[in-house]
Amino acid sequence: MAELHGGTAAIGKIPGTPGQNHDEIMVCQYIHLTNSKGCIWFDDDCFSYSMPTLLAQFAVIFFFTRTTQFILRPLKQSLFSAQIIAGIIMGPTLLARNREYMLKLFPPGGKLILETVADFAYMLHLFILGVKIDTTMLARAGKSAALIGTTSFMLPLVLGVSAAFISLRIFTIEDQIKKYLHFIAVVNSMSSFPVITSLLADLKILNSELGRLATLTCMVCDLWSYSMSIIMTTISISMRNSHWTTMWSIFWLAMFLMTIVLVLRPLAIWLAKQTHEGGSMKEGNFLAIVVMLLGCAYFSEIVGQSTLGTFMFGLALPDGPPLGSSLVNKLDAMSTGLWLPVKMTISGLRVNLFTKSTNFGTGVILLLIIVLGYIGKFTGTLLSACYCKVPLWDAICLALIMCCKGVVEAALYNMWRLNGIFSNQAYNLLIMSMLIVTGVATPLISYLYDPSRRYMDQTRSTILQSYNQNMELRILVCIHNEDNVPTIINLLEASHPTLHRPITVFVLNLMELTGRSASILVPNFKRVKFSSAPSRSDHIVNAFNYFVENNQGRVMAQHFTAVAPYASMHDDICMLALDKIATLVIVPFHKQWTIDGTVGATFPAIRTVNKNVIKKSPCSVGVLVDRGQMSGNWSVLTGQSLFRVALLFLGGADDRAALAYSSRMADHPQITLTVVWIKQWDREEQELFGNVMEDNLDSELIDEFRSNAKGNGRIVYREERVDDGVGSTRVIGSMEDAFDLFIVGRHHEPDSPLLLGLTEWSQCPELGVVGDMLATSDFQFSVLVLQEQQPEAGFLDNPTTSVCSSPAVSSRVGREPSESELCPIRIR
Predict the structure, then answer these.
(1) Which CATH number belongs to the domain containing residue 165 in this structure?
(2) Average pLDDT over residues 92-120
(3) pLDDT by residue (tens digit) across 599-645?
(4) Same domain for 436 and 336?
(5) Are 432 and 351 in contact (CB under 8 A)?
(6) Residue 54 to residues 24, 93, 108, 118: CA-CA distances in angstroms?
């Protein structure tokens, strides 16, 4: 017996427990050593008490995991990998080789408490993962995802089981090892849906085309995985008990699952209906769900499925807002952010790379089965993806994604090791192989796959094409909240849709991904509702439908909802713009103003979305800065007063696009347009800094505009000559009180004398020099900043060519769109 802080311990095999398969520590402790009660004043050791020891363990684990994550961030490693590696560093591989450190921070007596907290954290984490999963996605998986997911599970399983069977026939292997060779083959075939979706979110490709295919594929694979996990757990129980015990275990497990489906799920849906979208969950509803959660966890522990109960109960709850989001917001920060790292670090603490192998040949066989599993996973995914006509490089990235493992697999390895199914040698090999494969695959995927390549390399449509060829204007408008709706509707009305030049509007309702694992991009009629009260989406749809009814035959609208992380939300916008052959994407500015003209709210996440759209959009982009003139008392629909629009023209492609768009506005009977062309006083200096071809294009378009505007008293054109940026600022300042909307191009030559002195400071460089000055200064008018994407060569010869995988969308007024046209994302 060894003397420890607060007790004694002995090492040996403990009969009747999982420890009979390997050495276990039996600890005798004093029951009163919980709180230290100020031990420092009595020259006592605080690590003799359980509470200070537990707090110190939490602090050290948090420090090591976050430090390791910071060091590994340039290598694009996940937080999960950092937690495991931190555990290995803190464990017997490195720091725990110091006996005094090990007995102080991780005494045998503190092991049970720390692992209990870790298991409780993992139980909550599985519940949150279950809440985030939309089970109806499995029905929408499609043949391709079903085939890829099945082969991704079956081929590594067949290879692993075959290798285990051949090894048992050829080599002499210990009886204990024979029992778990097939278990290794099964567990190495798994791909967890929560792990894969977390990886996709970290790589910012969750709502990309590949991300959606990977989401559906791993859901199919996970169905196979959980089925085999239940079977393997049941078998492990039967290995230690009688067959009758196994039958009773299966019976009670079936009854438990039926109770969740038939009793708890209807109750959860009823609770969801009590929580309105956008509202907070009632305290009573939350406590009721927590009580059901604890009951499910208790019963699943009894029947031997310790993690299944909470996960299945989470699946029974509706994902997303209002109920799913509320549960995730209340539980996720503590369980996943603080407690779960303890579980993962413990998994790393159990890895000892210096443990001597009892049999070198056994280690080679185990490693062979593990490697064959990864080879089968990669090959099965790649071949089936290529068969389903997924592009080769996308198929390779999908195969790498499916090979990645994470929290769920590590916890399963840990559980099976504690149950005596795995040896320490097998556990070490599984953990290290998982870290290596996932650690190598993650940066490779990030390097090989760029979702923006699809729509950036394609032919682009622009405002100038629509203007020059008198084409239909196809506008994709992005809505982040209901406050954006009046402003955008008035801008659309000001765009003057007519029977000969109609406008097709694609309304994209953007929502942050909360309470869900998988992103969503669907037409609005496909959204599932749990509340009978009108939602935000209903209000937006009704507003735009009213606008369409008032412009019958001139405007057509299609509605979509996108739920995605802000970091990759631009992919949904750009993908929809490409698929619908949009001419212009309009995004609201990330700042909102109050009635008195001050900034009321700033949304940095929306600014990130706007910057990505400006950079990667397949068509022209407009950033709308609303200061109240377009959403207040004035409305183009009422026609009670003239709306004053000004265009500042300095030259360049973006300013020409702004002129083309404002020319269309000038045809509206309720709009006055003033075009101000700012020129350089010194013609020689203008020729020195200018571009002759650009100047010619500017002059041609201005001449055409002036020719068309003759006789129109609502259009004013004037030229202003200045010396530098101060003069340009003076011209803009003189127009401050005379207009409601200011239109300007985004990009101007930074070396132009017209901007001299204005490029040295910038708050919002994504708007360009002039746009930034107009949006961030104390001007009272609203601003529309336009960017013209440069079209590919040959597009003007065939402007109606569709570049997307779907058939070209004919949006003539009076025809209802088909479902294939409405849904922009299709998995073959």
Answers:
(1) 1.20.1530.20
(2) 82
(3) 767 889 999 999 999 988 888 999 998 887 666 544 554 555 778 88
(4) yes
(5) yes
(6) 21, 22, 12, 11
pLDDT higher than 50, residue 552: yes
Q: Which of 423, 449, 475 is the last residue of a domain?
A: 449
Sequence-distant contacts of 140-145: CB under 8 A, at least 24 apart? 140/216, 141/216, 141/217, 141/219, 141/220, 142/216, 142/827, 142/828, 143/388, 144/213, 144/388, 144/390, 144/827, 144/828, 145/213, 145/216, 145/217, 145/219, 145/220, 145/827
Question: How far is 540 from 741, CA to CA, in rounded Å?
Answer: 23
Residue 223's closest CA among 259, 190, 187? 190
* Chain-centre distance for alpha carbon 231: 33
**CATH number (domain holding residue 612):** 3.40.50.12370
pLDDT band (50, 70, 90) for residue 81: confident
Structural tokens at position 577? 């713009």
Mean pLDDT, residues 203-210: 86
Q: Which residues of 588-621 are buried (b: 16+ CB within 10 A; e: fewer)?
A: bbbbbbeeeeeeeeebeebbbbbbbbbebbbbbb
d(CA 821, CA 264): 38
pLDDT confidence bin for 433, thresholds 50/70/90: very high
DSSP 799: T
389 and 483 inside one domain: no
Of residues 483 and 516, more confidence is placed in 483
**List of residues 6+ apart from 470 with CB closer than 8 A:** 500, 501
Residue 53 lies in a domain: no
- Same domain for 391 and 437, yes or no, is yes
Q: What is the pLDDT at residue 818?
A: 38
- The predicted pLDDT at position 252 comes to 74
Whether the pLDDT of residue 444 is over 70: the answer is yes
- Residue 424 pLDDT greater than 50, yes or no: yes
Q: Do 297 and 360 belong together in one domain?
A: yes
- Three-state SS for 631? coil
- DSSP tally for the chain: helices H, then strands E: 31, 16
Number of domains comprising the chain:
2
Q: How far apart, in whole angstroms, are the C-alpha atoms of residue 158 and residue 162?
A: 6
109 assigned to some structural domain: no
Residue 173 burial class via C-beta count within 10 angstroms: exposed 0-12, middle 13-18, buried 19 and up: middle
Q: Containing domain of residue 784, as a range? A: 456-527+534-793
- Residue listed under structure tokens 């202003």: 720
Q: Do both 481 and 573 map to the same domain?
A: yes
pLDDT category of residue 811 using cuts at 50, 70 and 90: very low
Among 534, 503, 588, 579, smallest CA distance to 783 is for 588
Looking at the fold, whether 709 and 645 belong to one and the same domain comes out as yes
Residue at token pair 């009969």: 15
Do residues 278 and 95 lie in contact, with contact meaning Cβ atoms separated by under 8 Å? no
Encoded tokens for 651: 């030259």
Rounded to a whole number, what is the distance in angstroms from the first to the last CA of the chain?
65
